[in-house]
Every structure is written in structure tokens, then in C-alpha cells.
């Protein structure tokens, strides 16, 4: 009799265990987890590819204004811009795009960047290369503009869904563009 | 009319603390007679005829006793008192944190989760977060513990949960954070997690709750334990994330000795751990040393003096956020990958307890917690983040039974935090506090009412001082039909830490500015709950159930805010409310089979912005099953589900501070282990465990831009000599 009871209890436990593990596997199969982005996802709906050429090569950085803390590429939907502190506001309010908080390569003769443009179609009225001159993000100086160099009149860039637009921007530390604010 | 009128009456008590045990099972062997003890620990078995019987008394967490009794006539009444021995000295049926005294869990008016030695040991854990991750309502992200959504993302600064080790506070003086590596994990015998605002007794930091850890109490026989483990992380399935040529290893060893010599109890623990990490340049090496001495001055153990010394050293990689989701196991390309952090922690405490003959307790506790960290392997002109801090804490507690119905707990407490750091300067934060709490039994059987409060005065350096009152009212009722009802309302607060006020640093590209105007943050929480223990049969098989509905309203929450200029400043930004419910169930069978599950649902609201409170999951669901395969082999599975964090600070993603900051998924983590009890094979108590953590190799983040560990396989051996 006791044996029968124990067997029954054991069977109940087994049934509970199998049910638990089955439910567990069912639930886990619902989640896919993180994965590195697919290459085409990195492109996004629109992609802006750029090359920065520093006139005078590596040595030209000797003429860079103040300290060189970071270099970033940034495009703006509106132009002219508010003061340099307002650049951040433009970013926060989704009215600008940047190459990332991480700096682009510094003290080089050229570099490249990519910016995924999510809200297409879009027209960036002003696209520039900014140099951060202190640890404060406010301290930004424009060192290059997408324009018919050495004329600094900005050229708007339009990016449509699925488009990849390539641009080249020239930076001459001895002949810097006017600040846009 | 009954033929026989013999009666056995009695009281079931805990042998150490002489508190009544509610729900103990009393059976007359070889008969249908039996009873359960009530809230006062009393029971009665009647309609017995004269003769000799054997009473079998069983209770979860206690050794079963069989007592011979004799009724000399058919109408005899026998009165007995039975003291049950705890299976281990710190049984999970009594707790000491909630009211700063030993009391039955059934008397506590707030939600408490208790984890005893068995529950901790069976998980084969080496860090306390591995235990806390499976406590209902608790969420752990790196070294930050959140109870019922109390914390979100705070750059690891300012814990909203208090941490105690044997009653001594363990939050650092500078960052106010927990240092998990500084805890003597192999000697932790019991964990108590109190949920909801607990500042009425515990002061600052107990905004969301309290985690209380208790170390093992030695016994007369020497206990020598050696525990060692070795394992590795499996290679990630994505090539982009593979940063090691071979699976990165991890290993460690702990050795402890504990024994009671007449009046002296001694515990020594030493250990070291190495973890190469699943991420690049993130390896760590740690050393721990823990000593506890407890001296009893008299035979009745009325006066005891306990001293503990706890040392920890850590050498580890120094990066938090990934380069990007595509290279999630690498540090940002702009950071110095060889940068390391070296840190030391030292804690020393003295605790003098004296029990007066008229049921009064004097408890004097004094401790110091020193923390120190610095960077090395820096590039030229690279800024180091370093800090040396000390937290001195002294508390005098006096508790007294004023009458059969009134129990009083009072105390005064002072804490002085001193910080010396290039990033903060030399700063001092001072707390002076007093508290009182009364527990009243108003005459209704099983009802205990609690009322109390605490006053704290806080001042940091020359900034404005703050005066905080934290009241509390609560009730607990052990109903005659076996269900405990509880209700509580209490206030919590947390004073801003030195780091939050004075930080002026750059942290992985983020510039943090100081803010001297910061005020304490507050919470007001209430909950209503019920719990019961249902015996399933006569074999001490039990079903435990608990349900709670809670509301936590928080004001002036200190959060890292991104200013319009892109800098970070800690400021009082948010009023929030988190409402929810929690259901827990645990079934434990004498056969060794066990199953438990808990579900917490929360609705976290940011009342200031009228949106979801960021960085919180709304559903936490933890489950566990333990299956004895054969007598000496047990299989266990833990499963943890947290729903996808609904919202993060969009500005972090927009500004690109952390690449792919928005990469977040629900968390599904399954841990499995096979435990082999080798005692029957080799004679000595030895356990071998095969562990698989995150066995399904699920990839997820607990904080933004930080990939959590992937699958880890290890073998652990523990031998007791």
C-alpha cells in the first residue's frame, strides 16, 4: 500500500516536472535574444557616406584651433543654426544627425564616416565637420562645410529611402569656414 | 458523548528563541489523532483513552521529534512543552531584520523573502546577485539591486536598497553602492529580503527595501569546508562577438574553518577567484578574507561580543558600455582597452549584545567600511577615476517587553561618511538618527500592530542640511483558519551620495557635472498581503502561498539627467508611482521534490512626464524546480523572465553616448545543475555539481549597452571535513 502511494507521488512529480520543463522551453522559444545587426540593417532606410580630406595632410593639424578633443560630422535640417550650445538641442529634437558621439579619427590626412538616415526623405540644409575644443560638449568649432570648396556656401543634401549618398568634405585649418551661428 | 476524555495539550516553541511555532504538525503515531499548533504555538488532542502514545512533531526547517507520553486515565489531561531544534541555527522560519529582533516570519507585517543555507548552497553561487536574481520582485543589474522597480539606471551610483552583513551596513561612503565582491559568500547562511520602504528602522538607502545577509554560526564540532570550481564561457554563436581564441576560463577556491570552543566561536574564510570574462580585456581576479569571532560571557548567553573583519581585493578591466551591438564584447574603440581598476574593501565591526533578565535587550553595534579604487595602465594625459572612502556607523539599540502585549524597540544611530577623491575632493557626510517602534497585541488572537518612526538629520560638507521623518504603521493577523494577513504603510528616503552631489568627471565619454543643490529622495509605500502554509499530507509536505498588492510612490527621485548641452547632472527630476501585485507559490516535498514560482507585475509611471518610468520591466517571473533523480542525484532548473524594458532615455540614443543603446529584448535565462551527493560513495560529505548558467545561450542586456554573460559551464566540488 505504502509502495503504491510512493509510486503515485513519484508519478505526480514526474508529470509536474515534465509539464514545467515543457512550459519553460515553450516560453524560452518565444524570445530570440540580441544578435549583431544584419549588414543591410546597418544601412537603414537611407545612408550618407562621407570622406573628409584634410588639406596639408597630417601636418595640417598643427594649425587646428585650440585643443582637439573630438571630430564629428553633423547635418542639420535648419540653417542658420542657433549658438554652438544649440547644436545639441537640434540633435535632441531630432533636427540633426551626427556621425556618433565617438570621435572620428584625428591627426590623419583623411577619414570616412557613415550616417544612417532613418527619416527619409530628408534634406540636410547644412552639413559640416565640427571640432570639439574642450571636454564641454558646448565648445564646438566648425572646421569644414559640405560646399563647393573654397566657397563656403552650404550645399543641401537630399537622401531618399534606400538611397546611399556619398559626399566629400574638405577641411583646411588655415582657411576655415564662417561659423554658422 | 465521547467515550474517552483524555487530552494532551501543549506548546511548540523554537528551542533557541523560545518563540511559538505556528502550524507545527502534531500526530499521534499509529492513530488518526493529530493537531496543528495555533498562533500561540498551542495545540490540543482530545478523545484519547488511557495508555502510552508516541507524539510525532514536525515542522519545516526543524528536526522532527518523537516524544513518548502516557495518559494515566481515560480522562487525564497532560500538559507538555516541546522545544523544536532548528535544522540549522539560522532557520528560515524566523527572521531578525524586519523588526530588528528575532520573530516568526508569520508575525512580520511586510513582504519578506527568506533564503536559507540549503537554498543558497544548492544554487552553487559565488556572488550574492546570483541568489537575488531569483527572489520575487527583485531585479539585479550589475551591482545594483532593485526591489519592485525601485531603481532604474543610475551609472551604478546610489543604491535604493540597504545592504547589511550580520547587521552591519555595507553601502560604500562615496557612491552609496553595493560591492558584491566584498561579501563572504561561502559563509552566508541566510538572506532576508524586505520589500518596500524600510527607512522607519533602517534610515537612508532603504527606499525600496533591505537585503540582510547573515553568516554561519559555528557549532561544537569543527567544520572545515573546501569549495572549488572551474569552468568556462562557451564561444558566442556570432563570429563578431568571439574575442577569445579559446573559451575563456573561470575558476576559484574557498576554504573555511568554523568551530565553537566553549564560550568562543571562530570562523575563518579565505578565497580567490579568476574570471577571464566573455568580453575582451575584462578579466578579473579577486581575493577575500573573512573572520568572525563571537564570545559569550556567561552560561545563559546573555552577554555576547561579536567581531568581524572582512577584506576584499579586486583587479579588473575598466569598461562598462560596448563599442556597439555589432562588437558587443569589445570596449569602445575610443577608450583605452588596457585600462584597469584596482579596488580594496575592508570592513570591521563589533557587536555587543546583552539580554537583561526582565526581557530587555541592549545591542551596541559599531563598524567601519573602507573602500578604495584607482586606475592603472593609463595612457599619457588619461584621467584616472579614484576614490578613498570610509563609512563609520554606530548604533545603540534597546528593546524591551513592556508588558505581555507591548514590545518596544528604540535606538540611536550615527553615520559619518568621509570621501577623499580627486573627482569629488575631500567631503564628509553626516547622519544623526533616532528611531522607536512599538509592537502591540491588542487582545485579538494573532493580531499584532506595529507603529513607529525614525528621524534622520543629514548634512554633506557645507551644503544645506536635511531633516527627514520616516513614519511607519503596520499590522499582521494570524487568522484562526491558517492564513496570515498583513498590511503596512511606511516612508523611505535616501540622501544623495557624495558622488551624486560632487561628481565632476568624464565617464566613457560622458561629462558628469556636480550639483550641490540636490535633495534627498522619498518614497511612501503601502502593501496588503496574505500568506499561508498548507500541509499536503502527514510527511511534512507543504505548500506555501503568498500574495501581495503594493503601491510605491516616489518623489524627488535622483536620476542622471542629460542637460540641453549634453552633459550629465544628477538632480531631483522625477515623481513616480509603481503599483503592482506579486504572487508566490512554493511546494516542498519530503521526497526532495520541490517546485516554486513567483510572478510580479508592475506598472511603473513617471508622473512628471506622464509616461512609463524608464529602465523598468513590468513583469518579473521566476520559477524553479528540483527533482531527485535517484537518492544521491538531484536535478535543478531555474528560469528567469523579465519583460522587455519599455522605455530608456531617448536622449542617450539620440546623442550617441552609448552606441545601440536601444538594443533591448525580454530576458529569458535558464540555469540548470546536476548535484551529486558523494557521501554514500566516499564516506565524507562531498558534493559535486555540474552547472550550466544561461544554458540556452540567450543574449540580452540588463543595462544599456552592456551584453550580459552568455552560456557558462562549470563543475564545482565542495567537501566538508
In short:
Chain A has 181 residues and is α+β, with helices and mostly antiparallel strands. Chain A has three helices and nine strands, in the order ααββαβββββββ.
Summarize the structure in words.
The complex is a heterodimer of chains A (181) and B (721). Helices cover 23% and strands 30% of the residues of chain A. Chain A is built from 3 helices and 9 strands. In chain A, the strands form 3 sheets. In chain A, strands 3-2-6-7 form a 4-stranded antiparallel beta sheet, with helices on one face. In chain A, strands 4-1-9 form a 3-stranded mixed beta sheet, with no helix packed on it. In chain A, a hairpin with a 7-residue loop joins β6 and β7. The N and C termini of chain A lie far apart (92 Å). In chain B, β18 and β19 form a beta hairpin. About 1% of the residues of chain B have low confidence. Chain B is built from 6 helices and 43 strands. The longest helix of chain B is centred in the first third of the chain and has 6 residues. Chain B has 721 residues and is mainly β. The interface between A and B is large, with 34 and 46 residues.
Question: Which features characterize this protein?
Answer:
heterodimer, A: 181 residues, alpha+beta, four-stranded antiparallel sheet, three-stranded mixed sheet, 23% helix, elongated, B: 721 residues, mainly beta, 22-stranded antiparallel beta barrel, 6 helices, 4% helix
Task: Count up the helices of chain B.
Answer: 6
Strand portion of chain B: over 45%
Instruction: State the strand order across the main sheet of chain A.
Output: 3-2-6-7
Give unreliable regions of chain A as ranges: none
